[in-house]
């Protein structure tokens, strides 16, 4: 039986112009729908005051015939246990998601300027991160919410190379956390995306797409070197029926967030309409 993959848009293209678009939830939802996507994945910082108004967000989504696919929770998670501040925001995110059946909690960690370290120090940081995220995942599961983790390829990321992912998969096996492969970040980390997807297929519960040029720069969908038709074919053939979210980080998105989302929607129509 062929599962139907669902396609959506992440708020990151608008985050690249955060001063103009933070809190502009009606606009973001309308553009997501106009681009032909069926769902939206929102970062808390882009919701603004709407983070405290889930029923208003729900009404806006329904009006535009799209759904909330996931909410993104960024936290430092540097200690063995969550700090009071981290726990408070995590619990607010869980409470928000109780208004959206089937939406996932996507946890994410950006080390920023903090060097990732090496050896035992790096392993300790990784264990702290997974321990804190798992505590969040357990509380979310009590409310019927699935939690998944999105690694990235930033310089100081704790999980960015093939060796890093081996450690990640071992640590994740002891948690209630699923995996969000971001194809662009995987390629940026020097890996074969399709091979890694096959290796970690049983852990996948959400997927991110972003395109990347041969010189390492982010590109709008279809303008990079990643073979997305092959990746979609594999996901379909392997029975994946969850969300694929387009998270465009190309320089063009900073110049024209709306235009890039509309372009990405046009590119993704080949998959949405089953033409891959």
From TrEMBL:
Residues 30-252 form the Xylose isomerase-like TIM barrel domain. SUPFAM superfamilies: Xylose isomerase-like. The keyword Isomerase applies. It comes from the Bacteria. It holds the Pfam family AP_endonuc_2. Keywords: Isomerase. The keyword Isomerase applies. GO terms for molecular function: isomerase activity. PANTHER family: HYDROXYPYRUVATE ISOMERASE, INOSOSE DEHYDRATASE. This is Sugar phosphate isomerase/epimerase. It comes from Candidatus Enterocloster faecavium.
